[in-house]
């Protein structure tokens, strides 16, 4: 096992465990630790004034350190006290899997950390975003329940075939943008490809809409009033650039409503507007309003059509409770209602999320088709017939019968048996020597074997994924592209060593290091590096070594002149040092 389990992680289904990877804590360099420390110190200093109170409380409750990248094992020991756990993953994972982890009270944490060059913002999920952004807020019980419920509903959202293409394109962009030395032309090409996909998505799927809700609440949400908002979204909490930008008048503040589901976002740019919820409970209200529009609650013809459009594994549930899981390929409709449904390939039947004996994908390897609705000219639906009604209409073992449904579907054959649910309702009728037709079109013929006819007047629910997780092999996830590790040359290895020496000096592990020699080497071999000189300045300030302080300030001034974009980062770092020592 590549991770340390606990009672919460033990409950994860197998298909989610395939996304978990080891954190490999020893691979974090001293530069990575310095990046974490800088961002966290700056965040805590600033966010203590503008973040929702749950953030600072949550940092304490979750035990997330300002000085050290969190170790997943340590986080889990603390998170379990609030009923949650965390696992490491490789960058973006498919949205439905991400949501399903949340439904099990598990935070997925991309264990990579942003490069120093992207210290303010990265489009790639990283441990600063996940660990310092998401984890602290879940210590708030109302918000934690919202997150869990969001996952539960979100993983049932139906995607379109184009959604997965967009997911792969966004994942690719996030990887190359964070990778060291990617040519700008390659980044431009990837961004152009995403733009083209977004312009040609067609009608947004349920997953696209609920992903918008997730973005404008969990990732980029504000809370309070439009005039005096506070930050709670993890994307803002973990971005030292956007957390400041979002509080200016340049970013429009809008009351949070279900309309947020129809507001697109661009992952590559700062957000032009943000939504403000009055409190965490209101988030759940909007989520339930949105869920009421989803096929999981509305079913019907539109639900089955969404599943056909997804070209992926999905489930419909009939009014009897019978659940049919597979890849839906066709629906015959009449008068705006579905009258016959068809899957292709392995299909499984279930009741209350448990596969029916004898109705696995092996039994329905070539697909499954069945009429839906009422019999023609008979007021009572088959599912509402008691044993005497069924016998009166000759729906009975051994009877040769012709069942004609509204819309012209005809089932002719000999009844072998029926299957009932716990409430005594008939949910499935098995025929032999059976022919199923609509007008002159043959939908099933006797030589294909036994015909299993689903019983159900309505499709009450349609959703992504199988009813019974054990019915299908879901261990099929293949990552097409992994995050790119930095290829280190001698200069990089030397710079990491300098960072490590200074870190050890600050922590008292080795106080014999000559900080002056480190600075001279930086000036000579790494003249653009600014973060380590800021850390050296902090140590010089603590020792009250004014001469060394002055030399460092002059060096940092040269860096600012050569690289004006680094100016505010350097100034903020120096201010943090001065403020910390005064306080």
Describe the structure.
A hairpin with a 4-residue loop joins strand 3 (222-224) and strand 4 (229-231). The chain starts with 6 loop residues before the first helix and ends with a helix. Helix 4 packs across helix 7 (127-137), helix 8 packs parallel to helix 14 (280-291) and helix 18 runs parallel beside helix 20 (531-542). The relative contact order is 0.09. By secondary structure, the protein is of the alpha+beta class. The model has no long low-confidence stretch (mean pLDDT 90). The chain contains 22 helices and 17 strands. The strands form four sheets. Strands 7, 8, 9, 10, 11 and 17 form a six-stranded antiparallel beta sheet that branches. Strands 12, 13, 14, 15 and 16 form a five-stranded antiparallel beta sheet that branches. Strands 4-3-6-5 form a four-stranded mixed beta sheet.
Summary keywords:
583 residues, alpha+beta, six-stranded antiparallel β-sheet, five-stranded antiparallel β-sheet, 22 helices, 17 strands, 42% helix, 18% strand, elongated
Structure summarized in a few sentences:
The protein is of the alpha+beta class. It has 22 helices and 17 strands. The strands form four sheets. Strands 7, 8, 9, 10, 11 and 17 form a six-stranded antiparallel beta sheet that branches. Strands 12, 13, 14, 15 and 16 form a five-stranded antiparallel beta sheet that branches. Strands 4-3-6-5 form a four-stranded mixed beta sheet.
